[in-house]
Amino acid sequence: MEEVLYVLGPVSSLLVWRAASRGVVDMPVRDGHQPDLRRSYARVRDLRTFSTVRALGDAILDVIVGSASRTHYCPSLEMMVLRGTLPQDSFCWVENGLYVCSPELCLVLLGRGGCTLHLVELACELCGTYSIAHDQSGSFVNRPQLLSCDRMCEYLDALGPCHGCAAARKAIALAADGSDSPRETSMFLSFTLPSSMGGFGFPKPTLNGRIELSRESQKALGKSYLVPDEVYRDADGHILAIAEYDGKQYHLLTSDADGEGMTIDVGKVLSDDQRREVIRDEGIDLVSVRTEDTLDFERFEQKAMRLGRLLGIEVSSQSGRLLSRRASLFARLFDTKRWHDEHALLARLAGYRREIHHRAPLDDV
Length: 365
Known about the structure:
alpha/beta; 15 strands; 17% strand
């Protein structure tokens, strides 16, 4: 008897990855086995029998099938038909008979709707160490990194041309590894996105990259280094400035006695004032973005202008279209209420809410 398969689409798959990061469901497994989409179905009543799907609550459900004949129309279920050969590890096992898209495939298929900004945010989340809540509450948890920019580029090369691939490439080029929270991502994107998208166009920093302390600081604090939000360096690797979202608690990471590996000394967590003092003693310029700065564009712009000066970049504050773009991006990135409608936005990212014209072998019909 033919095995009945169900493969969740990019929206539901992303929600499963998020739910798994919170421990609500089991983490999907990359077992190397890829489902035959020609044997997958789209029946919402059957989907609701899976515990993983039930854990998502009333979230939008979408599925992937290999043939339109396998579908049963339901207004509460979106459906995507994919044909062609996909790279290994495009899907992950969740429970018997149920698969989800890998983070790599999620990003590609969510690029079909043409919303670059949110796709870049998703890339930073998947390539970062945090996960947004699946319930549209806007909360987040920290977790191990699911994806990297390099891994995503390798996947895109293996995938070849398909609808959503170009958008995913653009998003991953604008993203970076290592963001530790949604606010860190918002600050990073506001500083580094090109002016055409409303950003300040600064060069990419290293996110949560360590900085070695001087011998004097090591004597005072123990052999250690700090892990700031954003570290900006010149071409020779010298630190130009550090930018961080206020409230970041830097763990002092110390070497094991035998020098093998690193451990976190939980007894040495620096307060904001201690951190600033250490960084000042190191002779490094720090731009600290406080919560109140994220509530007022003019205050945030002043922080950006100071960072620009430290980087040797003149930031214009003139009025006009450029200023309007910056203000619009700021409002978009730091709006705490936007998560309430994210499921509908994800559906549009996947192309379910707009007409799509197909020109690639991997198509939705």
